[in-house]
Amino acid sequence: VSIYKGGQEEPRSKVCAEFFYKEYIVDYALTQMDPIQISIWNGIVMGGGVGVSCHSPIRIATEKSVYAMPETAIGFFTDVGGSYFLARLKDNISNGLFLGLTGHRLKAKDLLKWGVATNYIETSN
């Protein structure tokens, strides 16, 4: 929120530029990792949370998971590699297009159904 407000007050702010530069470097570095990254989504997964987890080959959702790319709601673009990831969802590219353009929220088992998550578990297990 502070980055958003800072960007509204001073769109070319050095603080905003440095924040996003560092965030995108981390997101890219995670895509280049040799060890397998496993992401467990047990709560809200949005924005930067998507960036550090969506490129994992194993993405586990729980009944507590809520996923979205809400940047479009504030006039931003789908970032953190989301446009790359969403364009490659299984079975239906229109699902990724819909999620990227609308910021629609998916919960729990819908993450698996839409191909965003690769696995689903109940936290009681």
UniProtKB/TrEMBL annotation:
Record-linked Gene3D superfamilies: 2-enoyl-CoA Hydratase, Chain A, domain 1 (3.90.226.10)
Molecular function as annotated in GO: 3-hydroxyisobutyryl-CoA hydrolase activity
Keywords tagged on the record: Hydrolase
Pfam families in the record: ECH_2
The protein's Enzyme Commission number: 3.1.2.4
SUPFAM superfamilies: ClpP/crotonase
Annotated catalysed reactions: 3-hydroxy-2-methylpropanoyl-CoA + H2O = 3-hydroxy-2-methylpropanoate + CoA + H(+)
Keyword Nucleotide-binding in record: no
Enzyme class: hydrolase
Any one GO BP annotation for this protein: L-valine catabolic process
Domain Enoyl-CoA hydratase/isomerase: 2-124
Record bears the keyword Repressor: no
Name of the protein: 3-hydroxyisobutyryl-CoA hydrolase
